[in-house]
Amino acid sequence: MKATNNRSSEDYLEAILILSNEVEFVHRIDIARKLGVSQPAVQKAIKILIDGGYITCDGMHIYLTGKGREYAGAVYNRHCVIRSFLTLHGVDEKTADADACELEHVVSPATFDMMKAYVDSNK
Q1: pTM for the whole thing?
Q2: What's the domain count of the chain?
């Protein structure tokens, strides 16, 4: 699923998804802290994601739309599968997580399907 080819947008959506599972309301400052970016950077990303129909904002709180939740879930799933694939091959957790953050944006569907099949068969 590639609703956007923008890695930054995928990172923001994934962060919003993770935060929304941890706290009742997601705020811009939460996203800035999670991603280690400035609040103006978050504000710019929020506008792009609203315009794309991925999130809504009531002024203070940020919410994923159905489209946004589906897309963020797909990105997060790719991350988790790739991280598991790497750890199953002996990569330490910290490195696997960092590498998964990079690979989740560029892995081809065929490679991802292979990784997922491997992870699923080695649970």
Answers
A1: 0.87
A2: 2
